[in-house]
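Reminder to self: tokens first, then the designed residues, so the page reads top to bottom the way the pipeline ran.
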């Protein structure tokens, strides 16, 4: 199995198109045509993780954070990023990052945080817009089912918990086949009227090429008429943060104690306790301060995230804001990546890093 096959599977789970515009997810170092000898999952591809990869004969490191984030002009080993790249290349180890694309899906980074707290009725806190598109095409009435089937098989027509969604209206199509054409119906040089169905199907933009291919291959016409329209709709399964409910409401102190315990954390920075009961919990692994207003608008009782600045604690009015640390909030992502690969390749050498890569230490 090549490295490309493994990363393709990761991208089926968390499509690279779902990453944020500033991000740099994907294969960062290495040749993806090479046979994979083993995988290590981690949050940060540090030099110690590369050493671990060498020791365990694993030639693919799958990290959450991209070690290369901006342009590099020299690779001479002057800092930890350059040293890591040199070491990875010298030892034929590929480094792959699955970052905000894994943050932005419902079963991604935040699902692990929610799972630890036993949250129910989960929804994306800030759904993403402009990632859905619509295909409209026109087929002879008796060929419509074939085209619809092909579009659904290619991933079209999925809407929340529903699949095979389409809208169909009957009408009359006209066309005149010119000299040299080979029309499915009608004669050369004569305008033809055909009873057609207009099929409308929604799909995520990143599968556009698959959708067009499926339509053309299943459609009987020589020239297929179709429209692709970009939609401003929100995608309910893609976006930032998650919000859900505790099975049983508890008080704020009980909640913080539960949080501390279930994440094995030493310290939680939080806003003033107001004596309210906690039921609705919003979460965002990593730097999630941008979601404070969204958590408030959604009437969350608590918002768990990290990297929150002094003034942002003031902003969180009537919200118990809990900063548990960046590494701590994302620590279960290592398990998530391991599980995604283990499920697909049960007999393959996949391991979780044994290195704690948290650069933040606490003096207690
Ligand atoms: Zn992070």
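Designed residues (364 positions):
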């Amino acid at each position: 199995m090549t490295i490309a096959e493994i990363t393709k599977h990761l991208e089926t789970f968390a499509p690279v198109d779902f990453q944020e515009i500033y991000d740099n997810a994907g294969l960062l170092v290495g040749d993806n045509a090479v046979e994979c000898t083993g995988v290590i999952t981690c949050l940060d591809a540090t030099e110690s993780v590369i050493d671990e990869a060498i020791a365990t004969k694993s030639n693919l490191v799958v990290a959450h954070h991209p070690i290369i984030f901006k342009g590099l002009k020299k690779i001479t080993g002057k800092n930890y990023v350059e040293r890591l790249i040199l070491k990875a290349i010298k030892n034929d180890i590929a480094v792959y990052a699955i970052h905000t694309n894994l943050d932005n899906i419902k079963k991604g980074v935040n699902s692990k945080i929610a799972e630890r707290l036993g949250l129910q009725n989960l929804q994306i806190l800030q759904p993403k817009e402009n990632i859905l598109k619509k295909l409209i095409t026109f087929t002879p009435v008796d060929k419509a089912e074939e085209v619809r089937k092909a579009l659904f098989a290619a991933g079209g027509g999925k809407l929340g918990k529903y699949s095979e969604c389409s809208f169909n209206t009957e009408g009359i199509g006209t066309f005149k086949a010119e000299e040299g054409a080979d029309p499915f119906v009608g004669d050369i040089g004569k305008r033809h009227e055909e009873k057609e169905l207009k099929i409308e199907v929604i799909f995520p933009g990143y599968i556009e090429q698959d959708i067009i291919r499926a339509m053309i291959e299943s459609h009987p016409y020589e020239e297929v008429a179709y429209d692709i329209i970009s939609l401003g709709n929100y995608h309910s399964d893609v976006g930032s943060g998650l919000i859900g409910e505790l099975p049983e409401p508890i008080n704020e102190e009980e909640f913080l104690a539960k949080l501390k315990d279930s994440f094995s954390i030493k310290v939680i920075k939080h806003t003033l306790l107001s004596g309210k009961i906690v039921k609705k919990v919003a979460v965002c692994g990593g730097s999630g301060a941008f979601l404070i207003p969204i958590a408030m608008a959604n009437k969350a009782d608590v918002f768990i995230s990290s990297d929150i600045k002094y003034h942002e604690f003031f902003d969180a009015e009537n919200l118990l804001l809990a900063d548990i640390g960046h590494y701590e909030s994302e620590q279960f992502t290592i398990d998530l990546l391991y599980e995604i690969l283990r499920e697909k390749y049960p007999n393959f050498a996949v391991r979780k890093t044994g290195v704690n890569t948290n650069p933040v230490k606490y003096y207690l």
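The chain has a mean pLDDT of 96.
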